[in-house]
Write a structure and sequence with these properties.
Elements lengths: L2 H13 L3 H20 L8 H21 L5 H15 L8 H11 L1 H4 L4 H12 L5 H12 L1
Helix pairs in contact: 1-2, 2-3, 2-4, 3-4, 5-8, 7-8
Amino acid sequence: MELATLQKDMVAAMKAKDKVRKEAISSVISAVKKTAIDEGCRDDIKAELVDRVILKELKTVKEQIDTCPADRTELKAEYQTRYDIISEYAPRLMSAEEVKACIQEKFAEVLATGNKGQIMKAVMGELKGKADGKVINQVVSELCK
């Protein structure tokens, strides 16, 4: 995802007077800019950085939904709407089957050791941002049995 696309969509939401959508996209844009400044690439923001920040924001909103008290339905609905908007921009993550195939294909020699720590270290470098860490962990655990 490109930062310019997010900015264009935020302007469109402002013109449409869609306050909820504008705020969700705006929070993602500000998180991207903050991360870019922290990493020292303020002027040259890569799509990979934008995707990484979107996934982080998505995870944060998911945690807000999960920890929201059941009796606060209006707040939970607000979080869910925000989650739905941000998920539109999130990159597609690999499924468990795709992760398993990738690990067996590219990391066969590390997989043969049976050392889960070594396998995770090798695999996470390659699949970070392409697949959910929990899915990777489950697949590696299954393959180590």
